[in-house]
Amino acid sequence: MGQLDFQGKQIEVDDDGYIINLGDWTPELAQFLADQDSLKLLEAHWEVINFLREYYQKYQIAPMIKILVKEIGKVMGPEKGNTKYLYELYPGGPAKQACRYAGLPKPTGCV
Amino acid sequence: MAAKLPKPDELAAGIDFRPPKTGWMDTPVELKEGMFCWGAKEKNLKAVSFPNARDWSPKEKDWKLPENWQRIVLEGMADRLQKYRSFKLFMDICVRCGACADKCHFFIGSGDPKNMPVLRAELMRSIYRREFTKAGRIMGSIAGARELTLDVLKEWWYYFYQCTECRRCSVFCPYGIDTAEITMMGRELTNLLGLNIDWIAGPVANCYMKGNHLGLEPHTITSSVEFFLDDIETLTGIRIKPTFNRKGAEILFVTPSGDLFADPGTYTAMGYLMLFHELGLDYTWSTYASEGGNFGFFTSNEMAKRLNSKIYAEAKRLGVKWIIGGECGHMWRVLTQYMDTWNGPADFLEVPKSPITGTVFDNSKSTKMVHIAEFTADIIKHGKLKLDPARNDHLVVTYHDSCNTSRGMGLLEEPRHIIKSVCNNFHEMPDNTIREYTFCCGSGTGLNASENTELRMKGGYPRANAVKYVRDKHGVNMLANICAIDRATLTASMDYWVPGVKVTGVHELVGNALVMKGEKERTTDMRAEPLPGKEGNE
Asked: Which residue on chain B is closest to A21 by alpha carbon?
């Protein structure tokens, strides 16, 4: 457990750096988290983050990678609908890194 | 953030079997990052009314224990010694012969003497002797007894969450001491103080509130299955229409939720769907009993029972005749050895009888639940499926026996019969690493988190080593298994130790080989990889 000092507010995060209260999330916070990995969030990154957040709203869980791949392929064109492209965007892994920026909790269980 | 993982050659070279110079009681525990999981979060403990719910970190000195923690542990121990005859017996009878010492995957992969099953058990026996035997009370350390201090408690926690309850050691014990049961007791006792790990507590809370470990809601489950159905249609041209929560179905199907939401288990789930469709089986999925696995089993007997109860409850509500369970490991230890006495008798169900072959599964007379590998092996044996094993010719397969299905229920031949029927290239790993001697994946019992990856890779080393042997000798490139935890964890340990070997469930291989009525010509396997001889077609 830890705390992030962001815009004069204390944001609670877990041991892996995921925010605890999903209501704390703002687009600025996403960029702030990305800054710590020296990553500038571009439009392509936001496509992923926005999809993750929409999916989470609807299903209360982060999507499977292959659902993400299919969706990004639909939105960004088939040449980008693959895991390689997603790993180029998020070298820490689309599931882990992108979910952390998107303010989603880490999935658990037999995964 | 988790500790940095050493490279495979560094990790292997770092295994040191020389014990420390000091005796084990005088060697204080050092909690090494990468070797343990994060502590259970308050919200997850609270969700199931587990004691001492609070946020805590094993890295901090203060574990936020209740003031009377010693009394809680000792009373908990007294209670369990009385309740479980096996626990009392296992505390008393070990002669420390050491037959188990080098059989544990964690010892082989770490060289840490406290990972010898005999010494791991001794961590608890020493307290048992001090508190519950006259010799220990009077003679103290001479009789192998010691006091329950905070350091001892931390040592318990560290090592009872470095055992996967795989029971390989028990196979070699001349007394048949089940070290898994000692670890189970160790975990129950730490659980009384809120000292569980979050990778277990999270799924337990999810399962209690939403019916499965991942916390999949009913519409998430159906949408996930729809996604598989799209892929199956692309592959075969056939649109399958399974049912959910259907009253009056003959069979209820229950599988680990990992199959629905984590690769490569999802391909196994596609295999189930294709097989059941082809057989025209009168069955239903449930979005309520939507978890075959049981992480409650890694916290306490009571919690495991509570989470298990929904399987029979749903079978009764839907009015099915019997139950098929999917490819999972610990799920089957729970189902075959506990479910009937916990939540049975399921006298409202019938003794399972295959509607396809007429085979009566007498071995499931009491539980009314059949493992899908038994079900499918029987179908294949009776020649009821059209199979084209050449569709798996790009794969050279070996089979990993899951600890719980092999040692916990003796399911050894059925998965092999299936694999040999649907694949042309199959090679066994060395004899002392398969069947009842199988090595654990290294990450069972809820230790499949990410912050403890070093522990997982150490524990996964012996299994990976046997896979490497058949990869180098026979060109094996696919490791088959019948467990959802295996599918997730062996993928990581193969990438680390034996790159190039992928992981699959047995029913994915079935799905590949299954010739379905009215299907179009397949050009790829279920993973959209080109089939042998069809490489140019995509």
From this structure: B43
